[in-house]
C-alpha cells in the first residue's frame, strides 16, 4: 500500500504547518491528488484516518481533490491530457510509484518526443489546512 | 500548495546508521563498481547494507549485481527494496526496465524525492548511494534533503579526473558536507601523485585499487567481483573509510 507512505508524508507536512500556526486542533485538511500518479482516494483516505487516530488530526475531515494531468511537449509545444487507459497494468503501476517514469513510456502524440513537461497533475499536494488556535 | 514528500524523508532514513554517497565529479572512474563492491564487502562483514542507485539516466549497479528482471520491490506501507546478494537494493530500473529514462533536472529531483519519501529501508548499518557523475541535481538534492549524508570520492590516477575532483571537493566544503576520503581507482602506475594531492586538499587518502581486467569479467557475478583486485582492495578501503577499531559493524 504505497498510499500509506504518501499519507504519512501528508500528515508530517500538515503537522509542521499546524505547529507553525499554533493550531490546537485541526478540522479540515485538503489534499490535491494528481491524475498522473493514479493515487486511489479511498485507500489514501483510509491511511490518513488510520494514521490520524489519537493525534491532532483525529477528528479532521480529509478532502481529497483530483487534479487533471496536463503534459506539454518541449519540442513542438503540443499539450495533452494523460490517460492510463492505453497503458498496460505494469506501466501504469510504474508511473503510479514514480510519475517521472512517464518519460520512458509516454510520447508526444504529435511529434513522438519523450521530452515533455508535466505541467500539472503530477503527485500529491497539501492544499489547505484549517483548525483552531487556543483561546 | 505544499509538496508534502520532503517532510517525511528524515523519518524514512532514521534507522540507518550511516549514509555514504559514492561520488565523483568525473564520469567513467568506476563509481558504480566501487559502490557495489563496497556494499557487498560491508554485507560480507555482517553489516546490514542498502544500495541505492540514483544514477537514474545511466544506472548500472543492477548489471554489476546481475539482478534478474523477476526481482521487484514489494509494497508494504511504501516500497520495500528487494534483497539482492544480501543488500537492500533500490533502483529506478525496477520501474523502467531496460528502457531509457530521459529525465531533465527537475524530473531527476522529483524522482529522487519520490523514492526517498516512499522507500522503507528499515534498519541498516550503511546505505551506500551510487551517485551520477558530476555536481548537479542529485548531489545538490541529497545535500538539501539528507542532512547526514557523507561523500566518498572516487578518482582515477588521471590529472583530468583529479582536476574535476578538486571542483567537487571545493563545492562540498563550501556546503560544509563531510567527505569520508578519496579512493584512487583503476591505478596502473606507482606514482603517489593522487595521494599527495589528496593530502593537499586536507582529505584522507583511503587507498588505491589496481586496474584488474577481471573486474570487467566479473560483471553480473558479485562473488567473482569480490575475488578481484577491487574486492580485495575493498577490505582495506572499507576499514579506512568507515571502520572504527577492529569491527565495522559490532
Secondary-structure map:
The complex is a heterodimer of chains A (135) and B (250).
Chain A: H1 2-20, E1 25-34, H2 41-52, E2 61-67, E3 70-73, E4 79-81, H3 89-97, H4 102-105, E5 116-120, E6 124-132
Parallel strand pairs in A: 1-2
Antiparallel strand pairs in A: 1-6, 3-4, 3-5
Helix pairs in contact in A: 1-2
Chain B: H1 9-12, E1 16-23, H2 31-44, E2 49-53, H3 61-65, E3 74-75, E4 79-80, E5 82-84, E6 87-91, H4 93-96, H5 105-118, E7 124-130, H6 137-145, E8 149-155, H7 159-174, E9 179-187, H8 193-200, E10 205-210, H9 214-217, H10 222-226, H11 229-242
Parallel strand pairs in B: 1-7, 1-8, 2-6, 2-7, 8-9, 9-10
Antiparallel strand pairs in B: 3-4, 5-6
Quick summary of this structure?
The complex is a heterodimer of chains A (135) and B (250). With 135 residues, chain A is of the alpha+beta class.
Please give the domain count of chain B: 1
- Using only C-alpha atoms, the radius of gyration of chain A works out to 17 Å
CATH class of chain A: Alpha Beta
CATH superfamily of chain B: P-loop containing nucleotide triphosphate hydrolases
- CA(first)-CA(last) distance of chain B: 45 Å
Portion of residues within helices of chain A: 25-40%
Query: Biggest chain pair contact, residues each?
Result: A-B, 33 and 33 residues
For this structure, what is the CATH class of chain B? Alpha Beta
Question: Uncertain spans of chain A, ≥5 residues at pLDDT below 50?
Answer: none
Strand-pairing-aware structural class of chain A: alpha+beta
CATH topology of chain A: hypothetical protein PF0899 fold
Mean pLDDT of chain A: 94
Q: End-to-end span of chain A in angstroms?
A: 39 Å
Number of H/I helices of chain B: 11
Q: How many helices of chain A?
A: 4
CATH fold type of chain B:
Rossmann fold
Order of helices and strands of chain B: HEHEHEEEEHHEHEHEHEHHH
Overall tally of structural domains of chain A: 1
**What does the main sheet of chain A amount to?**
3 strands, mixed
- Percentage of residues assigned to helices of chain B: 25-40%
